[in-house]
Amino acid sequence: MYLFALLLFPCAFVFYASGRAAVVRPRLLIALAALVLAGLIAVFRGFFLFRTPYDGACPLFFFLETFCSCALVPCAAYALCMLCARDPAETKIGSFALFMLPFYAVYLPAEIFAHPVPLPFFLLFAKPVLYVLMVAAVAHELSRLPACQGRAFAVALCAMVVAVAAPSLIETLWYYAFPGAVQGLAIVGFVALVAVRTGLLSRLTGIASHQK
Predict the structure, then answer these.
(1) What tens digit of pLDDT does each residue of 23-32 get?
(2) Which of 98, 114, 149, 189 is 20 to 30 Å from 86 by CA-CA measure?
(3) For residues 98 and 77, is the Cβ–Cβ distance under 8 A?
(4) How many CB atoms lie within 10 A of CB 111?
(5) In this structure, what is the dihedral angle of CA atoms 106, 108, 114, 120, given to the nearest 10 degrees?
């Protein structure tokens, strides 16, 4: 039952790397650094912070705590690693998925399994999928950002902000038992954003049209 949360990000990394061997191979040190850094942060939090899951009545506080823990910390780790790297700016920008997938492979299960058992379906299955989609969306926007200008640049930035915040927002809606229609609308909106911005929707439409 726990295998999905443990294996999703390693499988996503293998899938990502399999089609980009020439690009990924020279940057494997970045992926290794992500694994080590995620392990160090997880150990530090587990042994020294003694956090307990928030059970208060304020959705905004829960959202901010979840956002800082599950999105801001990994993004800050990526920024720190890129600042220390001597690679060109384009290489650093293109290494987002290469860093974040290994990082989340260690960090997110540690975050999930810190909750009291039994773990609900959302934490074991939905939450990992949401963060895989987030990584895919942000990596795509970053890859296009250098070529964007004016309105396209602003749209790409907004799409990245929405993608980073969406998993925490959806988890907040789930945790506070918002109406199913509200949760479903947030999930469908996020998936649609990722599908449209990454071109997945057009590729699937093209495949369907070709089959006809």
Answers:
(1) 788 788 899 9
(2) 149
(3) no
(4) 22
(5) -130
